[in-house]
Structures are given as structure tokens and as C-alpha cells.
Amino acid sequence: MVPLWMYLVVAAGLFCIGMYGVLSRRNAVAILMSIELMLNAVNINLVAFWRYLTPERIGGQVFAAFVFVVAAAETAVGLALILMIYRRRQTVVVEDVDLLKW
Amino acid sequence: MDINWFSADYLPWLILFFPLLSFLMIVLFTARNRIVSQTIALSAISLSWVLSLVEFYRVVWEKDVELGKEVFGSQVDWFEAGTHTFKMGVMVDPLTAYMLLMVPLACLLIFIYSLGYMRGDPHNSRFFAYISLFAGAMLTLVLADNMLMLFIGWEVMGLCSYLLIGFWFHKKSAYQAGVKAFMTTRVGDVLMLVGIGYLFVQAGTLGFREILYNEDMLSKLAGQTGIHSVLLGDALGWSPATLIGILLVIGMIGKSSQFPLHGWLPDAMEGPTPVSAMIHAATMVSAGVYMVVRMFPLLSAGVNFHNGDYSAAMWIMGSVGSVTALGAAILAVGQNDIKRILAYSTISQLGFMVAALGIGAWVAAAFHLINHAFFKALLFMASGSVIHSMEHGEHHAHEHGQHEEPHDEPDGLVMDYVAPPNDITRMGGLIHRIPVTAITMLIGSLSLAGLPFITAGFWSKDEIIADAYHGAASDPFPLFVLLALVIAAFLTAFYSMRMWCMTFLGQPRTPAAEYAGIGTGRNRWVKWWNGTRWGKQDPREVEETDRVSRLSAFQMELPLVILAFLAIFAGFIGLPEAFFGANPLHDFLAPTLLEEPEVFDFNFMPMLISMLIALGGLGVGWWLYGREPLAIGESDPSERALGPGIWKTLQNRFYIDYAYRKYIIQPAEWFAVNIVIQAIDKETIDGVLETIAELFTTLGETFKRFNRVVIDGVGDGIPEAIFGFARWFRQVQSGRIQQYLLIVTLALLAIGTLFILQLR
Questions:
Q1: How high is the mean pLDDT of chain A?
Q2: Measured on CA atoms in the order B660, B665, B670, B676, is the torsion positive or negative?
Q3: N or C, which terminus of chain A has less Cβ within 10 Å?
Q4: B536, B385 in Cβ contact below 8 A?
């Protein structure tokens, strides 16, 4: 059987890739996608910990399901925002959308 | 307390109250309305006059107690100074009662005269306010029962004199004359105040009753050592009474315009003529004499002048009075200004009174004071009428194209300048134009000259001369006084005649005199007079008049007629006893003061002397000026007799005023300008002040710099630094979401790392 740490390593790698994407991509849609990666990394963690540590309860699975729902909602709101910005400014580059500054 | 204001003790308050009230009312409420102001002033003085008659009746006839044995009056507490409570009080003794017969009556007549004389003056209300205040002050002085109240009346009169001399202040000469009068009398007043202060220190009171009716007090004051020593008095060995007496006499010299403080009175003629009549003839200038009569027991304390022993104050009065009487009489001869002649005459007559006081004849002095007030007020008002008529004549001559070129008035006071309407050489023949004035003025002049037996002036002057004659037998001092007064009396008769003849007799010497008239209210008189004289209409046409000018003329003539009556009959109360067995005035006044005046045996010599000098003076005057009146272009006979040098000296008043100007006023001005203003004020005081100011300015500049550099540097620097930091630091807020996230991530990493390390 695959040991727990491997799942954790994969999840951590996935999270780091997502993190990197959030911090480095200029396209707002790509950022949203990277966020999805990070959420999924969290989901892997939740499921892995559930399976190895408390298989008798279903809290981990329920949490993972919640995360899916929230991620879907978040993506919907995020895409709507990006769409509005694009309509107004013809851009989806986050660096150009810096009105809220000093 | 229940006060009966109409009892003899309290009535004097009302007498002096009404004119003062009228002053306040005019000044505060009615100054804009001339008619109301005049009415108030006139009713106030009429009330005073009526009340003073009532008071006179009460004290003389109504009371059981004999006046003189008892003094009427009342007192109220005034103010406290230290432990002494000063009282304000009124007092009526025979001397006051005698003055009460003269002062309100003279004031009333002059008020009536002013109605006519000042009609048309735009500042009528102001004039009546001032003369009301003056009348109130004079009554205060007469009725006061202590030296302090007397002095207040004295000073308020001085103020009114100043205000009224300078009444036409747009004329430079008028206000200069006002200042001159005020400053000159101030010299006397200050010394008099010193005397009053010394009297208070020595006697502990200023009340006349406590000092003058108290033998112990008088002998204490006359004692060799005072209660407190005064350096000057001790050094000279004078008793307090002597020093006080001298100081009071100096005050009198200033007020009564005696030599050497006489220079202001002739210039005071710049004021309106009613003022000259009231202040500078009848009342204020005689107030000095009144004060000395009042204080006579103190002035003569410790000496027995009946035996030729005179106190220092009496010596001063005798010599000053004689010199003044003679000198002013000489100057009066050489004047051409009708009012200035009368002014010098006033000075000279006051000199008579002062000289009389110097030899102890205070009853004669008081007698002459009252008579002089009547006839001199008459003469002044008559001269005002003459001046008025000359101005009127000038105006009409102008209408008929016969006027002379007007002179330029000098800028300021000029000693020998004579204003054209006042110049008697420009008059002549006025008796046909203003006969009432002419006749009343003749009566006044004869009274002044002392025409024997029928005029008041004769009896009082005779009494002075008789007293001097009596003393002259035993002592050289009264002999000197006698000689001076006899010559002065001769000159008095002479200049009275000269003035009257030059004014009224002969042919008019200028067009102004030809057309003269006071509002021609007496056209009827003129017609009648000229009709009797020429039997036909006056060749100079007689103009028609309106009601107002007739009223003016009536108001100006009525007082003249009343005073002319008094100028004759006021003298009969003081007849020597040889005539009717008793001298009523002497008996009336005698108990006033502790010092009983001596009754001399009647001697025919002095009366003969006064008769001769009066008739002689009048005769010479008539011979020179009346027999053949001065014709046009003819020079004055006196001028021809004396020569131009002496004449010019007389017209320039012996150059005394020049001497004062040169040796006192100009050095004082030089001292003021060069020493006080320039050297002391501008250079020394201003220099010191400026140096100090400089120092502080420099210090201030330093502080200012310190403030700007250090305090402002710190104060501004801190916000500046904060601002700069914030400016730099706010760039953190870049608006770029990924940067934020990066920082958050790094921070979380750091915190997590620390957390893990901590757990270890």
C-alpha cells in the first residue's frame, strides 16, 4: 500500500504549483485555474488524512465535497468579475488592474 | 430732618443753586434752542435776585437777633480727608448781606443787557450757560462759609472768565487774551492755594467762623511759632498769620488785576462787552477785594494798625494798591480804545480799594467795591452800546458808500492796536445818535470821577481818602498812599471826562459815527432830540425799525437806566456822620469782623481834597476836550501836551507787557523749546528710550532667528520626516494583488518557520 507521506508530497507539490501559478501568472483566468490547483491539493490532503487516520468517520469526505462546491462558486464569481473587467478595460492582465493603490 | 428752605439759615443755598442749575440745564438739554436757553438763564438769575432780597430782608429786619451779633447759615458734611471732615456751608453776615444787594442785581441787569447785545450771535446758548455758571460761582464765593468753598467759586469764576474772554475763539487775539488771563491769574491762585493749605495746617480748619470770629485762634496764628514749622516762615521770623496773609494777598493781586499781575485785564476786553461788565468790572475782579475784606482779621492779626503798626500783608497791599491806582490811571489817559480806558480805570479803582485795605480802611474798601461795581458795570454796558452803534454805523455808512477802507485785523494780541468800532478818536457827536446811552454814561463817568455830593463814587472815594488822611498825620506809609491816591483820583476825573467828551461831543469824525445807532430803537428819541435842537428833521435820514431791534435796544438801555440810578444813590448809605448824625453803612458793616473799625472825627480837609481833585480833573478834562471838541484830523490835546514819545509809551502800557514777553515768556519758551523739549526730552529721554528700544529690538531679532531655526526646525522637521516616510512607505500599497499575496506568503512562511522553531 502507498504510504501516507507520498500523498502528502504529491499534495504539497500540487499546492506549490498552484501557488506559483497564482503569484506568477499575468492572466486572471490562469490565476483562477491555479487557485483550483491549490484547492485540489487541499482536497487530496483531506481525503488522504481521512483514509489513513480516521477511516471510521466521513468528515474528510464531507469537507472535500464542501471544497468542491465552494471552489465552483468562487470560480463562477471570479469569472464574472473578470468578464466585467474585460468589458470595461479590454484586458485580463491583473497588473493593469491596480486602481486600489496609494 | 425737617428743613425750612425759606428760613434765613437755608435760603442762601437756593440763591446759589438756581444759576448753577440753569447752567446744567442749558448745557445738557436746551443748548440747541436759544430762546429756551435764554429764558432759563434769565429766570434763574431773577429767582436768585428775588431770593437774595428776601434773604436780606430776613436777616436785617425780620429776626429778633441782631445781624452781626449772630451769623446766619447752615452746614452739611462734605467729605472726609484723614481725620478731618470738611463741611460745605453758607453764611450770611453783614458783609455778605451787603454783597447780596449788589451781585445778583448786577448779574440780572447784565443778563438782560446780554439779551439785546448778544442777539443774533449763533452761540447764544453757550454764552448764557457760561454766564449762569459764572453767576452761580460768584454767589458761591460770596455765600461760602469756609475758605475751600470760596476757593472753588474763585476758580470756577477764573474758568468762566477764560471761556468768556475767548468766547469768539475764532479770533486769534481773543483766545490769546483768554489764555493770558488764565495763566496770569493762575500765578496768584497757586500761591493762594498754598496759603489756604498752610492755613489749614496751622488752624486745623478752614471755616470762617472758627478762624475769623475766634480771638484765641487769631492770636495763636499770629504767635511767633507755628504749630508746625515751615522753613521759610521760621527763617524770616514770620508768624503763620503773616505768611498766610502774604500768600492770600498774592492771590488777590492776581484776581483783582493788581500790579504786577495786571496785564491780563486790558486784553480781557476781547470778550463780549457784557462779560467785561460782569466779570471784569462788577464781580470777579472785586472778588479778590471781597476775599481780603473777609480775611482781614487774619491779615491784620497781631498788629495794631491804628497806631501805625502795619502787618506785612498790609504793607504789600498798601504799596501795590497805590502803585496800581496811580499807574493804571496814567495809562488810562493814554488809551484810545474805549473799553481799554475802562479796563485801566477798573484796575486803578481796584487799586484804590486794595490801598484802602492796606491802611486798614476795610469798610471804605467794601463801600467803594459796591459803588464801583454799579458805575463800572454801567460804563462798560454803555461802552458796549457805543461799540454796537458804531458797528451799526459802519454798516450803514457802507450802504451809503461812505465807508473807510477796513483795516486788516492783526493776527493775535497787539498792544497798541485799537479795533475801529472801539476807537474814541473815530467817534464824536454820538450824543445825537444814542442819547440814552450818552446821558447814562455821563452819570457813570461822573460817578467814576467822583463829582462831589451827588454821585456814589464821591462818597466812597472820599472815605478812602479820609482814612488815608487820618493815618497820614502819624505815619509816612498812609501819607504815601494818600499822595498816590490823590493824584490817581485827579487823573481818574480827567480821563473820564476825556472819554465821554471824545465819544459823544462835537462833530462825527468818521462816517461810521455819523450813521451810528443801536438798532435805532430810539428813533423817537433821536427825532425829539434833533427836533429840539435844530427844529427840523434830522438831516441824516432816520431809518424805520422792526420790533426785534426795538426790543434789543430796550433790553440794552433798561439796565443802563437802572444802573445810572444806582450809580448816584448807592452812595448815600455811606454818608459821613457829620451830615446826618450817623453813617448807616459803617454801623451796618462794623460788627462783621472782630476788628471794630475806628470811627474818625469828621475832618473837613480830606473832603475838601476830594472835592478839589474831582472838580479839578473834570475841569481840566472839560477845558481840553469839552469846550472845543476834537475836530476831524486834529490830534489829541493830551498827545500834544505829552509829546509823541510819552504818548507811545502810554499806548504801549509802559512796555510792561513787552518786558514780560521778553524777560519771562520768551526765556520760558526758549527754556521749554531748547532745554526741555530738545535737550531733555528729545535728546536725553528719547535717546535713552531709543537705546533701550534698540537693545530690545536686537534681542528680539535674535530670538526670532532662534525661533525660526531651532524651534520651527524641530516643529516642522518632525512632521516633515513623518510625511516623507509616509510618502515612501505608501508605495507598499501598489494595487497589484500578486505582490500582496507574495508578501503574505512570505510572511506566513516566516511565521510558520518561527512557529516550528519555537515548538522545538
A1: 90
A2: positive
A3: N
A4: no
Q: Give contacts of B748 with chain A, Cβ < 8 Å.
A: none
pLDDT-based confidence at B531, cuts 50/70/90?
low
pLDDT in tens, B274-314: 888 888 888 888 888 899 888 888 888 777 776 667 788 88
Amino acid at A15: F
Q: Which residue has the cell 491806582?
A: B325
Which one, of B103, B127, B107, B97, lies nearest residue B43 by Cα?
A: B107
Q: Residue B586 and residue B579: Cα distance in Å, rounded?
A: 14
Q: Identify the burial level of B551 via C-beta atoms within 10 angstroms of its C-beta, where 0-12 means exposed, 13-18 middle and 19 or more buried.
A: middle
Who's near B338: CB < 8 A, 6+ residues apart?
Answer: B383, B386, B387, B422, B423, B424, B427, B499, B503
Mean pLDDT, each 10-residue run in order, chain A (102 residues): 90 93 90 93 92 88 92 93 91 84 74
The answer to whether the Cβ–Cβ distance between A95 and B731 falls below 8 Å is no
E strand or H helix at B90, and its extent? strand B84-92
| Unique residue bearing C-alpha cell 504529491 | A10
Q: Cβ B741–A98 below 8 Å, yes or no?
A: no
- Distance, CA of B683 to chain centre: 40
Does B260 sit behind a cis peptide bond, omega within 30 degrees of 0 on the bond before it? yes
Which residue of A lies nearest to B732 if distances are taken between CA atoms? A102
| B583 in Cβ contact with B576 (< 8 Å) | yes
Whole-model pTM above 0.80? no
* Torsion from C-alpha of B735, B737, B739, B743, nearest 10 degrees: 110
Residues of B in contact with A101 (CB under 8 A): 733-736
Residue A69 in grid coordinates:
462546491
H runs (alpha helix) in B450-475: 456-472
Test A102 with B737 for CB contact under 8 angstroms. no
Name which of B594, B301, B310 is nearest B474 in CA terms: B310
User: What are the DSSP calls for B532-574, one per residue?
Assistant: HHHSS--SSPPPP--HHHHHHHHHHHHHHHHHHHHHHHGGGGG
**Predicted complex ipTM:** 0.84
**CA angle centred on B678, ends B673 and B681, rounded to 5°:** 110
Tell me if residue B75 falls in helix, strand or coil.
Answer: strand
A23: which chain B residues are within 8 Å (Cβ-Cβ)?
738, 741-742, 745
Q: Is the dihedral of CA A90, A93, A96, A102 positive or negative?
A: positive
| B585-596 exposure pattern, b = at least 16 Cβ within 10 A, e = fewer | bbebbbbbbebe
Specify which residues B77 forms β-bridges with: B87
β-pairing, B84-92 with B72-81? Answer: antiparallel
- Shortest CB distance from A94 goes to which of B731, B733, B738? B738
Which residues, 6 or more positions from B425, have their beta carbon under 8 angstroms from its beta carbon? B336, B502, B509, B630, B636
b (16+ CB within 10 A) / e for B373-393: bbbbbbbbbbbbbbbbbbbbb
